[in-house]
């Protein structure tokens, strides 16, 4: 099971900041499993340095896997605590760090066992980092860290690791998906029943509608009113909302980097565009809005009114 699927939120947060050029100088990972934390960090470092999307085969990827990259320093201990001497050694090593890449990378295992003196000493390095130094503090709980250290790190919380990868996927879906498999089923049943062209046109219209809803209240309302003529009957409107939910779910998977769960984006590249341009909370809000619209329609509200309500709810934040 790939670490991207196991820890989609932590991995995607790192990849997003890499893509946007907003890397933090220090990340504080918290999670019960040290190996899992290490996997997240090493995967990210390969993405950062490999040049071939973490290919696993090149010299750099192998160096990172073996923790033998010249610019990668790992601090660890078998003792109960990490002491100030080890932080001083780290700082010395950093100043001599032979920069083969553009980055100096520090991984501190069990950072929550750093003594208070050690944390205070470390604080200086995190506060005034040399250029392009990235710290990864691995901890079982960020609460064990000094608030001054915590506040200078971006926190990444890892999901608990289940017994098997399968379970983890289900957990992820259960956690983040508001739509259900039923919606996909609905879409694909529809595909068999109606002509492919009809479904294709419907999906195109729905994508335009989603884009409008996400862009602004006015745009959203204009698109809802345009959509009115497309699906005159109530059953068509309910089917359209279900398909809309399936599309939003796919956008959400894209945002989370869960491409393997996506089924529609290859046929409809706009899904990727929507995912790139919107944050996860907005997508979730849209999904909740559409779900509410579906509920309203079942209790006799017209499709247009239900969707207008969804648009207003989405944009009132
Ligand atoms: Zn590589």
Could you please describe the fold and organization of this structure?
It comes from Alkalihalophilus pseudofirmus (strain ATCC BAA-2126 / JCM 17055 / OF4) (Bacillus pseudofirmus). This protein is of the alpha/beta class and 317 residues long. It folds into 2 domains: 3-174, Rossmann fold; 181-315, Up-down Bundle (Zinc Finger, Delta Prime, domain 3), CATH 1.20.272.10. It is built from 15 helices and 5 strands. It has a 5-stranded parallel β-sheet, with helices on both faces. Strand 3 (104-108), helix 6 (116-127) and strand 4 form a beta-alpha-beta unit. Helix 9 packs across helix 12, helix 11 (217-227) runs antiparallel to helix 15 (303-315) and helix 14 (280-298) runs antiparallel to helix 15 (303-315). It is elongated. Mean pLDDT is 81; it is low at 163-195.
Structure at a glance:
By secondary structure, the protein is an alpha/beta fold. It is built from 15 helices and 5 strands.
